[in-house]
Amino acid sequence: MRIIVYGVGAIGGTVAAALALSGQDVVGIARGAQLDALQTGGLVLRTPLRTDRVEFPCVGDPTQLQLRSDDVVLLTMKTQDTIAALERLRVAGLRDQPIFCVQNGVANERYALRRFPEVHGVTVMMPSTFTIPGEVSAFSAPRHGIFDIGRYPSGSNHFDDDLARALEGANIATFVIPEVMKSKYGKLLLNLGNILEASVGPDVDYDAIRALLRREAEAVFRAAGIDWHDVGAADPRREGLMRQQSITGVARTGGSTTQSLARSTGSIETDYLNGEIVLLGRLFGVPVPANGYFVQLSSEMVRDKVGPGLVPLERVLAGLRAAGIDLPK
Question: How many of the other CB atoms lie within 10 Å of CB of 311?
Answer without folding.
Answer: 21
